[in-house]
Amino acid sequence: MAWFARVVAVVIADATLLWLDGMAFAGYAVLTALAMTAARRLPLAAFLAAVTMALFTGGSYALLVCTAYEAGQRISTRRDVVVIAGAVVAHLGVLLMAAERSLIADEPVGVLARVGVLTVLPVMAGRYLAQQRELTAARERLRIARDMHDSLGHLLSLVSVRAAELEVGPLPPEQRRAVRGLAGAARAAVAELHQVVGALRHTGGPGLADVDELVERFRAAGGEVTFERIGPAAPLTGESAYRVVQEGLTNAAKHAPGAPVRVSLDWQPDALLVTVVTPGARSGSAGGHGLAGLAERVREEGGLLRVHDEPHEFRLVAMLPVQVGAAA
């Protein structure tokens, strides 16, 4: 109902500004209503139609603003940006040529202002609000992930520990088998919870595909690094592998500049071993807040992080679970 009211308002506003009546009003109203209706499912097509109508009629201001706003909200690929930018530039070019032929000195400035207000600003406003909604949704996913990890993870871990204690206790064979099944089910539930939490926490951040770029940036900054991959790769959940390499390279740049760093991704049948070794480096952090946060991230994805801070070597080792049987 609200959308129908918006369509009616746009039709009346633009038709009134153009001083249309009779058949002209009816035809324009139909075209405007079709463009507004298409904006819900085909925002780019509706925006292109609105630009075309604006060029032919010299008006359609309300239609331009509404379709530009909808197009800005639905931008998802580089192609969308190119289409919108091309339509705006074409609109501006046609209006500037018309202004040049009219020989009015101030008209080009007015054309720029009109195109900016009617198209560019609505597109930017729509995109900004869409990004704010995406950010709110990501924060909600993160909150849910934290609640699940803090409550369900703790309870399932207690169940697993208690079942393991009973499993090694003096029980009859039948009860021992039942307890063993309970312990296995609890461990499986914890592993599945880690996967779900990792999926909820994932917000499109960097992953394994970005490790090569991370290493190249370190080299470009003057760092010496050896990077090796061992074994066939398999899918991972989350971005812990990238963060482990990032933390290791950052620590090397801070506390052992110029030292040769070794980074390796070793794919095992059911896990990925991520290792970053820096000779002569120390963690350089008494509180270890960065490493503590990294360890928490790895645990939430079902993995394990070990830090070896020795006098002549700093080593980060992470073991991350992979999808068994999914090796490429």
Summarize the structure.
The chain is an alpha+beta fold and 328 residues long. The protein has two domains: 2-133, no CATH class; 208-321, Heat Shock Protein 90, CATH 3.30.565.10. It has helices at residues 2-17, 22-38, 43-57, 61-73, 78-102, 107-167, 173-201, 211-220, 240-255, 289-300, and strands spanning 224-230, 260-267, 271-279, 304-310, 313-321.
How would you sum up this structure, described in words?
Residues 140-203 form the Signal transduction histidine kinase subgroup 3 dimerisation and phosphoacceptor domain. With 328 residues, the protein is an alpha+beta fold. It has helices spanning 2-17, 22-38, 43-57, 61-73, 78-102, 107-167, 173-201, 211-220, 240-255, 289-300, and strands at residues 224-230, 260-267, 271-279, 304-310, 313-321. Helix 1 (2-17) packs antiparallel against helix 4, helix 6 packs antiparallel against helix 7 (173-201) and helix 8 (211-220) runs parallel beside helix 9. The relative contact order is 0.06. The protein is 65% helix and 12% strand. It is elongated, with a radius of gyration of 30 Å.
Query: Order of SSEs, N→C?
Result: HHHHHHHHEHEEHEE
How many E strands? 5
Query: In terms of quaternary structure, what is this?
Result: single chain
Strand percentage lies at 5-15%
GO cellular component, one term: membrane
Organism: Nonomuraea solani
Catalytic activity: ATP + protein L-histidine = ADP + protein N-phospho-L-histidine
Pfam families: HisKA_3
